[in-house]
Amino acid sequence: MAHVRLTANFEANLESIRSFLARNDAAAALDDLIDLLFDTWIPNLEAFPHIGRDFARISPQSVEGSVRHARMLQLAGPGTEIREYIAGDYLLLYAVKKSTVYLLAIRHHRQLSFDLREYWN
């Protein structure tokens, strides 16, 4: 059984999601996210730390993506796996090192797109 730890960046991402949901009149969805995180996703990762897709096997589609991808893998160091877990409307990025899972980042799928509304006002 793995131990799951939240990183400071992951917590900052949760705050970003809270703001995003509030701006989009979906503030109640944050409670659902927190419930899913602690009742489903963390227990899943504790029991099956390799449930997510191996991030090292993803081929970035841009030069910038390739540089960031390589840097992340370098920073992780030997013996650390970086994985991504798609769960509902969210993408989680996490590291597995020995018997610990570090939650690195989380994003709502709509946060991954461009919001051009502010440019048209």
Descriptive overview:
The protein has 121 residues and is α+β, with helices and mostly antiparallel strands. It has a single domain, classed as YaeB-like fold (2-Layer Sandwich), CATH 3.30.2310.20. The chain is 40% helix and 26% strand. The model has no long low-confidence stretch (mean pLDDT 85).
List keywords for this structure.
3 helices, 121 residues, 5 strands, YaeB-like fold, alpha+beta, globular
Would you identify the regions where 5 or more consecutive residues have pLDDT less than 50?
A: none
Q: What portion of residues is helical?
A: 40-55%
Order of helices and strands: EHHEHEEE
So, CATH architecture? 2-Layer Sandwich
Q: How far apart lie the N and C ends?
A: 52 Å
Instruction: Give the overall average pLDDT.
Output: 85
Secondary-structure-based class equals alpha+beta
Highest-level CATH class: Alpha Beta
Radius of gyration: 15 Å
Give the domain tally: 1
DSSP helix count?
3
For this structure, what is the CATH homologous superfamily?
A: RelE-like
Widest sheet: strand order? 1-5-4-3-2
- Our estimate of the beta-strand percent is 25-35%
